[in-house]
Design brief:
Elements (H helix, E strand, L loop, with lengths): L14 H9 L4 H10 L5 E2 H7 L5 H13 L3 E6 L5 E6 L1 H33 L1
Antiparallel strand pairs: 1-3, 2-3
Keywords: DNA-binding, Transcription, Transcription regulation
Protein name: Helix-turn-helix transcriptional regulator
Organism: Bacteroides caecicola
């Protein structure tokens, strides 16, 4: 899947579809959340991988590249041996965090009821 070319065939200029398709995939919000837990300190790739143990190295790389392409994450490479690469959130992402945190809060508040409804629906 080419994550750099997400476009809705019927509505290619729709900002909601275009932005949410990239931001709301399986891993992007989790990576942003994990980087935010580090406060303002940059995070190395292996640290992210340890914090999100069920993401593959390939998918974490792809997700970070996509977030960097869209301006949510910065990637800093230090010319050392071995090379050191650090990731951090951008000001754009910090402006998004209150909305992400509100969504997380809503999910926590409603999780039990949603799970109960899912069980009920499976019994039908």
């Amino acid at each position: 899947m080419d994550r750099t070319m997400i476009e809705d065939a019927l509505y290619p200029d729709c900002p909601i579809r275009n932005i949410l398709a990239r931001l709301c995939d399986k891993w992007s919000l989790l990576v942003i959340y994990t980087l935010n837990k580090a406060d303002t300190a940059p995070v190395r790739f292996k640290e992210l991988q340890r914090e999100i143990p069920d993401i593959s190295q390939k998918m974490l790389t792809l997700t970070l590249r996509t977030l960097e392409d869209d301006g949510y994450v910065t990637r800093t490479v230090y010319p050392e041996v071995p090379p050191r690469v650090e990731y951090a959130l951008t000001p754009r992402t910090y402006s998004l965090l209150p909305h992400i945190n509100a969504l997380i809060g809503w999910a926590i508040e409603n999780k039990d009821a949603i799970m109960k409804d899912r069980k009920k629906a499976r019994k039908k």
